[in-house]
Design goal:
The chain is an alpha+beta fold and 269 residues long. It is 37% helix and 25% strand. It contains 8 helices and 13 strands.
């Protein structure tokens, strides 16, 4: 009987689930596909994500709208997900591919933890996500790009950190705050005005929601808070104790306060 430790599976053992699939079942990877020349199918696109640091952690928020050309494809899509206990991932770009890559990334981190018996470092997680985005480059060149935003708590430094990416998988650490997606230019302008060092978690939530509100005000592909349908942004905070999704009731109160303050100001623009 063959020793399992010397068999073919053992020789292919790796702490990277993505690498394992690349060797054994590459057709299962979301980015190992190709389209016929000149073929770009219509597909929903996820839009605006914001992230910012606060005292003791980092926060990420995303609106709920997906668009397909000039059509609203979904008002309920979620674009911010926990990657693991101490990190979160936001997606912009081709929604279907982005969600598949997110799921693969979640499995990648869980697989590493089970094989190695320890958590991957925050920078290590960011690098692995960059490699996945680089793997999607052929699809991105055909118009089906995925652009994530990654954030988490770094136990080695005791602070929240955030990372942006380009379509080639290039990884860039951002300071203080960042935004990606179609409404990012408007959200980033709001973040520059509203962000302050050492924000509390509660104030950071208010800053993120207001930045998304500003983005929705000027970008038709970004959805603002919707009190009629009771739809609010998806917001996660990450600190030393792990990630936490902000409850909808808290977001409803924050969005209501923003609307009231702007209505009281009586401004048109």
């Amino acid at each position: 009987m063959q020793d399992p430790s010397t068999g073919p599976l053992a020789t292919q053992a790796t702490s990277s689930f993505t690498e394992h699939l690349q060797r054994s079942r590459p057709e299962l990877l979301p980015f190992n596909q190709s389209l016929p020349a000149g073929m770009v199918p219509s597909s929903p696109h996820a839009t605006t994500i914001v992230a910012l640091t606060y005292a003791g952690g980092v926060l990420m928020a995303g609106d709920r709208r997906a668009t397909m050309g000039n059509i609203i494809a979904s008002r309920h899509i979620e674009k911010v997900f926990p990657a693991d206990e101490y990190s979160v991932l936001g997606i912009a770009g081709t929604a279907g591919l982005a969600i598949d890559i997110t799921r693969l990334f979640q499995v990648e981190l869980e697989h590493y933890e089970k094989i190695e018996g320890t958590l991957l470092s925050l920078v290590g997680k960011a690098n692995r996500l960059g490699a996945m985005i680089r793997g999607n480059l052929p699809m991105a060149m055909q118009g089906m790009a995925v652009v994530p935003l990654f954030a988490g708590f770094d136990h080695s430094s005791g602070v929240g950190r955030l990372f942006s990416y380009d379509v080639t998988g290039g990884r860039y650490e951002e300071q203080e705050h960042h935004s990606v997606g179609s409404g990012s230019v408007f959200a980033r302008g709001a973040l520059k005005k509203l962000w302050k060092p050492n924000l509390s978690a509660e104030n950071a939530v208010a800053v993120a929601v207001e930045a998304l509100y500003d983005a929705a005000d000027d970008d038709s592909a970004t959805g603002g808070p919707d009190p009629v349908r009771q739809l609010w942004p998806v917001v996660y905070t990450v600190d030393r104790s792990g990630n936490r999704r902000v409850p909808d009731r808290d977001l409803a109160a924050v969005a209501g306060a923003i609307v009231e303050s702007r209505a009281a100001a009586g401004r048109e623009a």
